[in-house]
Structures are given as C-alpha cells and as structure tokens.
Give the backbone structure.
Amino acid sequence: MGKTQKTKSFMLRVDADLMDAVEKWAADEFRSTNGQIAYLLDQALKKSGRAPRRSSEPTE
C-alpha cells in the first residue's frame, strides 16, 4: 500500500497585498499558492526549532 499523508483544511484570512505577494512568489517558484504557504510555514517551523518530528526521522 502507498504511504498516506494527513492534511487539514482551514480558512485563512490575509491582507490582499500580502496574498498577492505570496501568489507571485509561488508562481516564481513553480508552486501552487497553497504549496507555497505550506512550504513557508514548514521552513519557519524548522528555523524556530518547532517543526514536528516525522515518524521517518530518527530520534536522538
């Protein structure tokens, strides 16, 4: 069987200018807007040391 990934959906309200900037950035990176937002959140969590451990990551 294939690996399944859990995702959650939620409504997000952001400033129109901020959203325009994210949409342009996503297009520049060849990502969907949703993919870009998920990528940015993932990077911010990793940088802050708050990223959740994935089951495939070894523990120390």
In short: Helices lie at 16-28, 33-48. The first helix runs from residue 16 to 28.
